[in-house]
Amino acid sequence: MKIGILGTGDVGRTLAGALARRGHDVMAGTRDVRRKLGERPTDTDESSYRDWLAAHKAVRLGTFAEAARHGELLVNATAGHASLEALATARPADLADKILIDVANALGPWNDGGEMELFVVNTDSLSERIQRAHPRLLVVKALNTVSARVMAEPAALAGGDHDVFLAGDDAAARETVSRFLREEFGWKTVIDLGSLAAARGLEMMIMVWLKIWAALGTADFNFKIVR
Ligand SMILES: NC(=O)c1ccc[n+]([C@@H]2O[C@H](COP(=O)([O-])OP(=O)(O)OC[C@H]3O[C@@H](n4cnc5c(N)ncnc54)[C@H](OP(=O)(O)O)[C@@H]3O)[C@@H](O)[C@H]2O)c1
User: What is the CATH number of domain 2-216?
Assistant: First the structure.
């Protein structure tokens, strides 16, 4: 399948790499291809994007708009504060009637030393803002409650005995994404929370996630619903 992944950070790389290994035709999207290829590694990236791409030759890099055009299925893996801006660069026709798996969290720019804050909360969500801005896109919130590695390799943690959630206004799109997560990454339990309004709660979970991350000193953990 042709997949467009908007985002070149940890999530974009992890999902693009995993899906290309599965034989999908993946294009990653960035603001400026030349600038991205000229970037040096940062404190948080293990390698420059150029080096990462050299090690993942099946993945192609384009602009956000080109990745949106390429994909039959799209993934939003951009910084939450920039997601609307990134998607706005795509042609409306390239977003129409496509599923967008929205993994982004509604966090503002990294605030060194300060507490992270959500820029939308309670009565609205980033996913709903994306859906309103692009009514023909089929937005499905998913995977935002786990780290990039856990997203693509759930079995590496507790044998995969833990849960991921999704939400979206289109029932068929939710079902498609649920199957996709099971088949491509091996998720065993995908809990369907119904309409996209559930993204409010899913996005708020990042505030708890960040505290658990700090307390445990690792991002290799997840939520499991016991009943
Ligand atoms: N990291 C995780 O484990 C994790 C887990 C769950 C959810 N998430 C969510 O997934 C998303 C991606 O996270 P990440 O850690 O992979 O990377 P990130 O650093 O949050 O985002 C990187 C991407 O955002 C784009 N971006 C940043 N500022 C921008 C701006 N002002 N305008 C346009 N684009 C901008 C970057 O564009 P360029 O390509 O041009 O640099 C890059 O593609 C985030 O919303 C995050 O909250 C992350």
Answer: 3.40.50.720
